[in-house]
Backbone:
């Protein structure tokens, strides 16, 4: 017996041995983020899992499963507080399922071209950079305005109000066309399938800035959509690639569900602007890390991809 | 007539003059949920009908995990970004490979014998079509060996076989925690002046057991059921933890 507390666990599908407390901790941190911001946390967790040596294919598939769990407890918390727009969530979900199916087709096409890994990384850098930057600037402006006592401008009537097929979303207090939320759902679904994430980090800003939904409702509604899209993705991975590691998922989610509850509590105590600026900083940090990986000379220019696949 | 021929044939077999009698500390490695790797002690003796010959004997022990195809990719800077450019597909590379010897490998085994028996690490990797995929295919094979050596998946243990009185030998191979299950072929070569004079093979069975076995089998044979079960476990845990937390907050 060693003196240090170590509890190595062998993951049956990933076929690697990792420290159980490390997984619990990672799950907890990502869970807090999930509860606070309504993001699945996949955009953080998936690269972290690569980093601790989980094969990429297993990391992506298992992450989808873990997001279902961490989002589930978050959604329950939000449903209880009535901060889920079920009607908007359903529209986004329909778009999301279509998008996920399209995304898988696109992913396989890019895989046949042989540069899918680079494309995924570039997608991350571009999306995280643009979204993080916009949110950061916007939140700074909002905070400065509230300090000066300026009331934030009420939502303007833009394109979302001119399109046909209007629908009333009572919880969000919106009367807009279903086309923009459907398109948001589709694009998030495509991104989710290509990047192996829940897509909350794209959907949350899109809901705020494109659809004009109130921030409080955005979190619960995006979690609602994420649950179903990631459950769909989990089943696709389990049946086609056999890469869902339930032992890994359980460890991540035990930390994750506790974290999500703490995160939801923290989220209700913070101002919307503060939440947004924190999320923006997080997104920018991950973006910077990924960009540096692409730009700096790697210590090992060779890499091994085993026959099992992955991207 | 036949009997005479058989006798002559037996008499003409110098290879049989020295034989390996082998022992393993274990011939099964069970991968459990708390598997942290395994040390295997490989020991044995050399059985002789005659006196110990003048020229000393050497011992080489190899342990080889199941072989899998592997793709090795190389990054290059394109427009400031590091991009995977060239790649080489290797037909079969062992997932684990250890060579332990009683002396420097170059001295105890000739190149011809290495080629025939595939003993050294580079020779254990099969790469028939690799040369046609890149001009410098060896660099890719070297990279695979370098990366796997760093992970302790490939081990060159020169002078690590203790060999006493030209008769008793033993070595310890430590297998890392990240093992692929399968039959681990264990070979013992006796060499004299670089030539293999006797060879012995056995198999170490590396298998998942218990829950690990059950989950793995289910995921391959009933993938939809396994996927639904994973989701059910995830949702139950998510809902359960949420409920527990709610109770805790109220009290």
Residues:
């Amino acid at each position: 017996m060693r003196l240090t507390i170590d509890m190595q666990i062998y993951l049956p599908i990933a076929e690697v041995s990792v420290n159980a407390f490390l997984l619990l901790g990672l799950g907890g941190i990502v869970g807090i983020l999930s509860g606070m911001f309504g993001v699945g946390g996949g955009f953080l967790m998936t690269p972290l899992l690569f980093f601790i040596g989980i094969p990429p294919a297993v990391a992506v598939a298992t992450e989808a499963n873990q997001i279902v769990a961490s989002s589930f407890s978050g959604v329950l918390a939000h449903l209880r507080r009535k901060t889920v727009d079920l009607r908007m969530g359903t529209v986004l979900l329909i778009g999301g399922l279509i998008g996920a199916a399209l995304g898988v087709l696109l992913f396989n096409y890019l895989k046949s071209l042989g540069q899918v890994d680079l494309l995924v990384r570039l997608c991350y850098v571009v999306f995280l950079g643009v979204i993080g930057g916009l949110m950061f600037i916007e939140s700074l402006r909002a905070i400065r305005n509230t300090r000066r006592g300026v009331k934030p401008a009420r939502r303007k009537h833009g394109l979302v109000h001119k399109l046909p097929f209007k629908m009333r979303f009572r919880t969000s207090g919106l009367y807009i066309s279903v086309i923009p939320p459907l398109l948001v759902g589709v694009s998030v679904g495509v991104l989710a399938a290509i990047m192996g994430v829940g897509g909350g980090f794209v959907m949350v800003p899109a809901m705020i800035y494109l659809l004009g939904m109130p921030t409080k409702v955005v979190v619960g509604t995006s979690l609602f959509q994420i649950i179903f899209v990631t459950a769909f993705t989990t089943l696709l991975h389990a049946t086609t690639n056999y890469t869902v590691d339930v032992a890994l998922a359980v460890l991540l989610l035990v930390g994750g569900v506790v974290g999500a509850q703490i995160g939801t509590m923290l989220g209700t105590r913070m101002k919307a602007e503060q939440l947004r600026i924190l999320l923006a900083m997080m997104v920018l940090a991950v973006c910077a890390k990924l960009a540096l990986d692409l730009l700096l000379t790697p210590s090992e220019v060779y890499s091994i991809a085993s026959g099992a696949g992955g991207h | 007539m036949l009997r005479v021929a058989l006798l002559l044939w037996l008499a003409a077999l110098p290879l049989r003059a020295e034989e390996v009698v082998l022992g393993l500390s274990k011939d099964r490695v069970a991968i459990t949920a708390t598997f942290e790797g395994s040390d295997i002690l490989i020991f044995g003796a050399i059985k002789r009908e005659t006196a110990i010959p003048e020229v000393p004997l050497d011992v080489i022990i190899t342990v080889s995990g199941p072989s899998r195809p592997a793709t090795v990719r190389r990054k290059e800077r394109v427009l400031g970004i590091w991009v995977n450019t060239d790649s080489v597909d290797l037909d079969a590379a062992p997932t684990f490979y250890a060579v332990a010897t009683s002396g420097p490998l170059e001295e105890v085994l000739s190149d011809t014998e290495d080629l025939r028996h595939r003993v050294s690490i580079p020779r254990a990797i099969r790469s028939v079509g690799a040369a046609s995929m890149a001009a410098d295919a060896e660099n890719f094979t070297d990279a695979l060996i370098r990366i796997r050596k760093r992970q302790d998946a490939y081990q060159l243990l020169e002078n690590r076989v203790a060999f006493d009185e030209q008769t008793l030998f033993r070595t310890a191979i430590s297998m890392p925690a990240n093992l692929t299950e399968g039959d681990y072929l264990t070979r013992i070569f006796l060499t004299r002046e670089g030539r293999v004079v006797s060879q012995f093979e056995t198999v170490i069975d590396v298998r998942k057991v218990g829950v690990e076995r059950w989950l793995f089998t289910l995921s391959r044979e009933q993938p939809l059921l396994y996927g639904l079960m994973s989701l059910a476990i995830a949702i139950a845990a998510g809902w359960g933890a949420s409920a527990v937390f709610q109770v805790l907050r109220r009290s």
